[in-house]
Amino acid sequence: MANTADIAKKQLKVLVPLAQGCEELEAVTVTDLLTRAGMQVVTAGLDSNPVTASRGMVLIPQTTIDKVMDDDFDLIVLPGGLPGADYLQNSEQVQTKLKQMAANNKTVAAICAAPKALASAGLLDGKAITSYPGSLDDSEINNMNYSNNSVVVDGNIVTSRGPGTAMDFALTLIEKHLGKDKRNEVEAPLMRPIN
Amino acid sequence: MANTADIAKKQLKVLVPLAQGCEELEAVTVTDLLTRAGMQVVTAGLDSNPVTASRGMVLIPQTTIDKVMDDDFDLIVLPGGLPGADYLQNSEQVQTKLKQMAANNKTVAAICAAPKALASAGLLDGKAITSYPGSLDDSEINNMNYSNNSVVVDGNIVTSRGPGTAMDFALTLIEKHLGKDKRNEVEAPLMRPIN
């Protein structure tokens, strides 16, 4: 968890790759909330076309993945959705970036079907994780500590289940990096129902 | 509430005006979930430019509001966010469409700051409603039955509070038009936490 010195240091930079067929609600929940928390969110397409998301919304990423391969990021966050998550899994550049960031102890996060891209990068063996039910092969899950919790944090790996957990996923990332007070500051004005 | 005959009849058509500075999480939650429910969602910009939403995501609407003024819709749903909601309030075309649809007993829905556009169209007097706290003038609220519930349905007027209530807002619209079974069918795969 973040300490005050880290928090004051610099604006955190987040890479959100946007594949064709990504789940727009997950993508936008992440970019919206991390932006509200004061992070610099960089959306990067896998190609130079506008992204048609899984339920039809068309998004224009800020840049493309090839242009940010040499940039430093504090977090990489993968939205789910199909076929979006398959494209993330099959993208050589995304796989390279995931491995590079994990090796440098940066936060690697994925929601819904996107943990499969982390599995392909070899980042989930022995880890506590979750994902959209059925989106990982049983043979892969055997090597993981798989749960049905909404959000699972294991060191620098953060995973979550689907559109209905995207808000908790984003708030967990905010709390992990910027502390509980910042999480509360972002969460309160969302007007979530009080349970 | 919908009966079986209505449900079978035809695909429901939904107009979602997208103003510059709309809240992207609210816009996308509505378009995503109503699309999942099988409705035909038409996103319409107030101008012909891509829409830069309130937290930076850039969306491309399918059409512009001037091109759909003569089209029939079953629902109109206004996302909130600022300055987006102000643009909706000040758009002559949006105001015309709101009045036209309300007069024809179509569903008129707004979330967050967007109920102010309904107030300007004269649709909220004497109605049970909610909105983002502080987004309506006190003098306006005096004529309404204002509550802090997450989603409020009063006849054909449906209102809600903010990004954290957008999912319940969309699911309520689905249930109102397509019934509880369809709502459940859309809600289950979202993987919302079980309280």
Looking at this protein, list some descriptive labels:
195 residues; Rossmann fold; homodimer; two-stranded antiparallel sheet; 7-stranded mixed beta sheet; alpha/beta
Number of helices of chain A: 8
CATH class of chain A: Alpha Beta
| Oligomerization | homodimer
Portion of residues in helices of chain A? 25-40%
CATH fold field value of chain A: Rossmann fold
Structural class of chain A: alpha/beta
Shape type of chain A: globular
Computed over alpha carbons, the radius of gyration of chain A is: 15 Å
Count of β-strands of chain A: 11
Q: Termini distance of chain A?
A: 26 Å
Main-sheet strand order of chain A equals 5-2-1-6-7-11-10
Mean pLDDT of chain A: 95
Query: Would you identify the CATH architecture of chain A?
Result: 3-Layer(aba) Sandwich
Series of secondary-structure elements of chain A, N-terminal to C-terminal: HEHEEEEEHHEHEHEEEHH
The figure for the number of domains of chain A is 1
- Kindly report the name of the CATH homologous superfamily of chain A: Class I glutamine amidotransferase (GATase) domain
Strand content of chain A: 15-25%
Main β sheet profile of chain A: 7 strands, mixed
- What are the segments of chain A in which pLDDT stays under 50 over at least 5 consecutive residues? none
